[in-house]
UniProtKB/TrEMBL annotation:
The keyword Hydrolase does not apply. Belongs to the major facilitator superfamily. Sodium/anion cotransporter family. InterPro entries: MFS, MFS_dom, MFS_Na/Anion_cotransporter, MFS_trans_sf, SLC17A9-like, Sugar_transporter_CS. It is found in: Cytoplasmic vesicle, Secretory vesicle, Chromaffin granule membrane; Lysosome membrane. One of its GO terms (molecular function) is purine nucleotide uniporter activity. Voltage-gated ATP nucleotide uniporter that can also transport the purine nucleotides ADP and GTP. Uses the membrane potential as the driving force to control ATP accumulation in lysosomes and secretory vesicles. By controlling ATP storage in lysosomes, regulates ATP-dependent proteins of these organelles. Also indirectly regulates the exocytosis of ATP through its import into lysosomes in astrocytes and secretory vesicles such as adrenal chromaffin granules, mucin granules and synaptic vesicles. It comes from Muntiacus reevesi (Reeves' muntjac). It catalyses: GTP(in) = GTP(out); ATP(in) = ATP(out); ADP(in) = ADP(out). Pfam families: MFS_1. One of its GO terms (biological process) is purine-containing compound transmembrane transport. Its main location: membrane. This is Voltage-gated purine nucleotide uniporter SLC17A9. Residues 6-429 form the Major facilitator superfamily (MFS) profile domain.
Length: 439
């Protein structure tokens, strides 16, 4: 029961992470009209999230490996929820709207950058190999669910109350989630840890008031409890392995392709089909992606349990997640039908969720003892590529006047990652000195 509660809670946390993350893409077109941004300036704001996002990946993974991913996630969510709520205020502080919004997105990226590495560390420590794909894909489905929620509710709020309401909605829900996790799931556990370090005096019991609860949690975080793993990372051993570099390059490609589509698809539909309803193109692709993510996890674990080699299953998932998804992305640039565009976008986004059961889990196969750190390195590379990719997408649209070039870029990046992983990818552990049998 505790495992189910935590899986559901982390699913909701991932959902709210993306609610906050995609608030800017959903509002980008309206904010550009209000502030007079062109495509290049909008691209700077959209990509600035990844400038911060790439800086805290490794830190988040290492902290997750050392002190527990749940603590890292809780503290970062508190901060990014507050920043999201405050974003409309920052936008109206002065006339430098572009600078303030860029700063806000960089700060949000810094705070959200620790989430997935800490999550990977948490799951690699708590979940068996035969169940990792389904657990990770279930929790990872929150990214599509969060995008769906902001796409649906955010589009309505955008039409009814203006773009600031979207930020209030996503940031406020995050802060409510933080309060629930702390008070209902971590409070009893935190109190037990505190008593282990500071036993109460005989016959003396103190009921801490709510403000002291947060101080107590921060105190435990500072103590670094519990440290249940070796904190030394075998840097040289990891980065000598081609399979590690294949994982990093594949994660880079998957993240960059996803970030480009996530950032520019709302603007693509808004400009290509101006009479279309936002709640359709901001909802349908992500509605398809949720069952696709769950299906990929179930299929992956089923194939492994049926006796297929782990690396064969991981590569098959990447063929779907990077290969087939890029074919549908290419189709987006060669259709003038709104219905076909929604179908192609839905297929591309849905198939990209197979990456959760491919490369994301492969990192846990390679180095479960330091999976948070290694995922942080890989996701840093993906975030850096996201900065370049999203900016380059805005530049290509502005200079060519065509959206086809953006979707060609997505296909090229995906193909690079897929080919690298198919050639060099393995599922053999590389974080231990003794040789292990290739899975």
């Amino acid at each position: 029961p505790e495992c189910q509660v935590w899986t559901g809670t982390l699913l909701l946390g991932t959902c709210l992470l993306y609610c906050a993350r995609v608030s800017m893409p959903v509002c980008a077109a309206s904010m550009s009209q209000d502030f007079g941004w062109n495509k290049k300036e909008a691209g700077v704001v959209l990509s600035s999230f990844f400038w911060g996002y790439c800086l805290t990946q490794v830190v988040g993974g290492h902290l997750g490996d050392r002190i527990g991913g749940e603590k890292v996630i809780l503290l970062s969510a508190s901060a990014w929820g507050f920043i999201t709520v405050a974003t409309p205020l920052l936008a109206h502080l002065g006339s430098a709207h572009l600078a303030f919004m860029t700063f806000s997105r960089i700060l949000t990226g810094l705070l959200q950058g620790v989430y997935f590495p800490a999550l990977t560390s948490l799951l690699s420590q708590k979940v068996r190999e035969s169940e990792r794909a389904f657990t990770y894909s279930t929790v990872g489905a929150g990214s599509q669910f969060g995008t769906l929620v902001t796409g649906a509710v955010g589009s309505l709020l955008l039409d009814w109350y203006g773009w600031p309401s979207v930020f209030y909605f996503s940031g406020g829900l995050t802060l409510l989630w933080v309060g629930y996790v702390y008070r209902c799931l971590l409070n009893e556990r935190a109190s037990g840890l505190w008593e282990q370090v500071h036993p109460p005096l005989d016959g003396f019991q103190v009921d801490l008031p709510p403000p002291s609860d947060l101080i107590l949690a921060l105190g435990i975080l500072a103590q670094g409890l519990p440290v249940s793993r070796h904190t030394k990372v075998p840097w040289r051993q990891l980065f000598r392995k081609p399979s590690v570099w294949a994982a990093i390059i594949s994660q880079l490609s998957a993240a960059c392709s996803f970030f480009i589509l996530l950032s520019w698809l709302p603007t693509f539909f808004k400009e290509t089909f101006p009479s279309s309803k936002g709640w359709i193109f901001n909802v349908v692709p992500w509605l398809v992606a949720i069952p696709a993510s769950l299906l990929s996890g179930l299929l992956s674990d089923h194939l492994i349990n049926q006796g297929y080699r782990t690396i064969t299953v991981r590569k098959f998932m990447q063929v779907m997640g990077l290969g087939l998804s890029s074919v549908f992305a290419l189709c987006l640039g060669h259709t003038s039908s709104f219905c076909n565009s929604v179908v192609f976008a839905s297929a591309s986004i849905g198939l990209q969720t197979f990456n959760h059961s491919g490369i994301s889990v492969n990192i846990q196969d390679l180095a479960p003892s330091c999976a948070g750190f290694l995922f942080g390195v890989a996701n840093t590379a993906g975030a850096l590529a996201g900065v370049v990719g999203v900016c380059l997408g805005g530049y290509l649209i502005e200079t060519t006047g065509s959206w086809t070039s953006v979707f060609n870029l997505v296909a090229a990046i995906s193909s690079l990652g897929l080919c690298t992983f198919l050639v060099f990818g393995k599922a053999q552990r590389v974080d231990l000195s003794p040789a292990h049998e290739d899975l």
